[in-house]
Predict the 3D structure of the following.
Amino acid sequence: RRARNESIPRDHPVARALRAKLRIDKGDLSGALADLDVAIAGPLQSAIFYRNRAGARRVIRDLDGAMADATRAIQIRPRYAEAYYERGLAYMEQTEWDRAIADFTQASLLQPKHVECLLRRGVCFVAKGKTHRAIEDIEAGLKGSPDAWPDRPTYEKLLLKVRTVHEEKARRSN
């Protein structure tokens, strides 16, 4: 073990991964990807490294790379909810609704208070025209999210629209 005052060498995979996280937070995705590539090439096979690179790849629209990295993170750590969530986001961006729903469902099972999974799965159900399921998920996600959450108004508006569509469908079927 290292003494507390000893630092990790700059090129150590953990140091690279930490620097990548800082770069992601600052919006430097190309720098983050370079650091994560080095971290992943090292001896540590960390699900977190792969999940973080998946997120950066998704943002730059390398969706195949994002899905491959999220899948690798799941292989390393099968109970890693964030990896399923990240892969679900990539599937969602490719309009692969059923696969996205499956990944958001798995992430929700692994981490029941992950409200983003419920909200995103609700959006997928909207896209599939399954308004009843969408309403259930969006309501549950909003119930678990803080009032001050910046995306809350967007999902509240979506919920109102989905309810209107659902009610209209019900009227037409009667």
Remarks:
- The chain has nine helices and no strands.
- The CA atoms of residues 23 and 127 lie 33 Å apart.
- Residues 152-173 form the longest helix (22 residues).
- The two ends are 71 Å apart (CA to CA).
